[in-house]
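Action item from last week, closing it out:
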Amino acid sequence: MWRRVILWLVSSVVVFGQTQPPRPEEPVYKFYSTVFGTTVLKPGGLTGLVYALAPDTPRLPVFDRMRPISKIYTTSLNIPWQAFTLGFPGVPERFEWFAIDYTGNIWISKAGRYRFTLESDDGSALFIDNHLVIDNDGIHPVALKKGSVHLKPGKHAIRIAYFQGPRQYLALTLRVAGPNESLRIFDTDRFAPPSNP
């Protein structure tokens, strides 16, 4: 009984005994956890340099001509399409017009062709060993692009560049599949070097 009452109170706005629905001009969003990274260092993970962008920036910037405003760390990129209004951990006071340049290393134990998908809103790009694997750049609604590269065993450099243009939505998800594998969320923990390489 009490559980029903609590659920009713949480899901309703009660004004003078009447339930008020959301106003039509106020969209109702389904929120997910928005985590571009944390300020706590993640050993073996990705380091993301955060940059402020000028409004109306149409594409990924040339990062080496810019100065970062902060630094964040993560082991995976799994941010589903969602409203931008929650803010961004590790990205202070930026809701739109910012970019993140993630870099790190992965260890490949099995040679073969590795498939990637990169989904983003707005632009993004994936580089392996400074080679462009996926170009998903530009201001656009959520879009998924695919790419693949043959990798030899050993260490490889990985870079994911991303930028958020104008509101209202954002997304950034990277998936990977090794030889004879299904696509899964990319995580640097799965590409860590062996203890005795």
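Closing note: The CA atoms of residues 69 and 79 lie 21 Å apart.
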